[in-house]
Design a protein that fits this description.
The protein has 213 residues and is mostly beta strands. The protein has one domain. 10% of the residues lie in helices and 30% in strands. The protein is built from 2 helices and 11 strands. The strands form 2 sheets. The chain has a 6-stranded antiparallel β-sheet. A 5-stranded antiparallel β-sheet has the order 6-7-5-10-11, with helices on one face. Strand 10 and strand 11 form a beta hairpin. Helix 1 runs antiparallel to helix 2.
Length: 213
C-alpha cells in the first residue's frame, strides 16, 4: 500500500457544503463543493488509509492516472467509514479530478466530470443516455454540477475539482465493464488494471463487486 503525503490530509476538507447551493433530489443530496486547499498530485494506482481521530473515521482512497489523446488526467476516489476498524460501507464516495503538475498547457480544462458506462441499467437514477457512438446501452453519470473547483469563475481554467457520489453511482461505474470519462474537459480511458484496482477498492470499502481477472 502506498501513502500519498499532502493529499490524504485534505481530502475531506475539499468537499464542504455551500450555504448558497440548494439541495435537489438525487442519489446523493447534491451539494456544490469548495476548496479550502489544493491537493497534491498522486501516482497511478496509489492507495492510502488513515485513521482520523477527530471524527473517529477511517479514510481510504485510490488514485489513478488516466490516459487521454495527448495528456493524462488524475482521478481519485476516497471514502470515510466509521471507526478505526470499519465494518460498514460509507454513505458517500468522493471523486477527485486533477490536471496534475505535468498537464498539457494547451488543453482547455473546464468544470466537467462525467463517466460513460458501457452497460448501465436503463433509466438508473442520475444517468442519462449517451450518444450512439458509446453503444446502444451506454449511460452517462454526469457530476459536473456537483463539482467544487479551485477556480469557480465562469469560463475559468480548472486544475482541481471534487464531488460526491452515491455508493450506487460508484458501483455502476465500477461494474460497467469498460467505462470512459471526461475529466475537466479531457476525454480519458481506464486501463484494465485500473478497473481491477477500482473493484478491489470497492470491496475494501464494503461495496461488494466481483474482482474480475
Amino acid at each position: 500500500m502506498k501513502f500519498v503525503p499532502g493529499f490524504v490530509m485534505i481530502l475531506t476538507s475539499l468537499l464542504l457544503a455551500s450555504e448558497r447551493t440548494a439541495r435537489v433530489e438525487s442519489p446523493v443530496a447534491i451539494q456544490q463543493a469548495r476548496f479550502d486547499e489544493l491537493p497534491a498530485a498522486w501516482g497511478d494506482l496509489d492507495t492510502w488509509s488513515r485513521y482520523v481521530s477527530a471524527t473517529d473515521e477511517t479514510e481510504v482512497g485510490i488514485g489513478l492516472k488516466t490516459a487521454g489523446v495527448d495528456t493524462t488526467m488524475l482521478v481519485a476516489f476516497s471514502a470515510r467509514m466509521k471507526g478505526a476498524s470499519p465494518s460498514q460501507a460509507p454513505s458517500e464516495v468522493f471523486v477527485h479530478a486533477s490536471a496534475g503538475v505535468n498537464a498539457n498547457a494547451g488543453n482547455v480544462r473546464n468544470k466537467t466530470l462525467k463517466f460513460v458506462l458501457a452497460s448501465a441499467p436503463a433509466g438508473a437514477a442520475g444517468e442519462r443516455p449517451a450518444r450512439a457512438a458509446n453503444g446502444p446501452s451506454a449511460q452517462v453519470i454526469d457530476v459536473s454540477s456537483r463539482l467544487g473547483a479551485d477556480n469557480e469563475s465562469p469560463g475559468a481554467r480548472v486544475n482541481f475539482a471534487t464531488a460526491k457520489l452515491a455508493p450506487a453511482e460508484f458501483l455502476r461505474i465500477v461494474k460497467s465493464g469498460q467505462p470512459t470519462a471526461t475529466v475537466l474537459g479531457v476525454d480519458v480511458a481506464f486501463r484494465p488494471d485500473q478497473l481491477r484496482a477500482l473493484r478491489a477498492f470497492a470491496n475494501r470499502i464494503f461495496l461488494r463487486v466481483p474482482e474480475s481477472k
